[in-house]
Every structure is written in structure tokens, then in C-alpha cells.
Amino acid sequence: MIFGFMDMRFKRILLKLSGESLMGHQGYGIDRERLDSYARQIREAVAAGVEVCIVIGGGNIFRGLSGAAKGFDRVKGDQMGMLATVINSLALSSALEAQGQEAVVLTAIPMFPIGEPYSNRKAIEAMKSGKVAIITCGTGNPYFTTDTGSALRAIETGAEVMLKGTRVDGIYTADPEKDPKAEKFDEITYDEILSRNLRVMDITATALCKENNMPIYVFDMDTEGNLMKMLSGENIGTYVTAGS
Hints:
There is one protein chain. By secondary structure, the chain is α/β, with parallel strands linked by helices. It is built from eight helices and eleven strands. β1, α1 and β2 form a beta-alpha-beta unit. α5 (146-156) packs parallel to α7.
């Protein structure tokens, strides 16, 4: 389904996608159906007039922290994780282009011709021209997660919100997959997330968003259609702001 231009909740977004979600039900790698679902939802958002920038994790292939726990050097493990994000970014770019949506892959680490070197100017120009800007390799540095990379890129590219697309439909008092009594927040502040030690994303990413007044919206991206529902104004997730 293609949407014409309409009133959207946000004009420019940074969408953080989970690498683990790309596995679908496979347990490893990239599930083609999940990838195509993401591509369709993103294409619909662009068709509706939303400028889209994307950061994808690499946990479906390799996670630096997990590698360090198994004896890998932490720096090299994180660099391997960065390469995993490149694989996912190329896959999403290919899926988008197969559906007629132009995309550009920008890498925080020089990696031509796989992707163009990242700059916020290139990302903004791409979005303004109707392309999806996919930014990969996190911050380009070890010891920083892709959540922190997402927060940084959202701020740098002038996004109005950082959307965190997960397999859970928002932020809860506890892990809803483990605690059936967990209660969902419709809205919450950065300070509450930090004081409650809620594992929405790492502390550095949350603090960076707080310091730069970058709102976060956590929602279930794995249910097709949810991205457009959220952008159209439906409250299907949890909104994180500084509060009153």
C-alpha cells in the first residue's frame, strides 16, 4: 500500500532497528520476510513525505560484548560487530531498492566502494532528495553501542525523534517477555529510565538524548503497519521526553 503525502507526526526521523529482530524465527542471520517487511514500512513512510535515516544493530550476526565474553579482544570484537552492521545495512539497502525506494549506505569507517564515508551533510542531502540514509558502523569507535550511534546520528542529522523499533510494543516496568505483571508506560522521562534502571538502551545513549533534548519513541516494528500507525499519530508505543 502506497500512501500519498499527508500530515505526519514527524517530518524527519532516525529509525533504530534491532539486528536481532532481523533474524525473524531463524535464530541467526537475516530472515528475508522480516527484511522485506521493514523495507515496505520504510518505503511507505518516505512515500508519505517523511525523511528517513536508519541505523541497524548487528546482533543477529555478531555482538562485540558477547565476543569479549568468549575471549575476543574487546576492540576487535566491537570492530567485528561494526562489520555485522554493514552486512545488515547492505541487505536493507538492497531490499529497499528492490521495492523501488532509493537508499544510500554511509559508513562511519572508510569502506568505499561498499558505502560512502558518513557525514551529516551527506545524510541530510540524501533524505531531502527522497532517499533513505542508512548509517552504519555505529560511531566508528569501540566501546560504543549502536544505540549510542543512533542517538548521535539523530542529533547530527536534525531528526525530530529517535524511533527505536523493537519486538516489544514499548517500555515496561520489567521485561514483559519474562514478567507477565510488567506494566507499560505510555510516556516516561529520561530521568525515570535512568533512576529505574530500565534497559531501554544503554546509559550513554539515554544521557546523550537527554542532554540534547532528543525525544525517543519505542514501539513494535515487527508488526507490519506499525511504523505508519505511529507516524500517523496513533499511540502504539512509549514516548520518552524530558517531561514538564
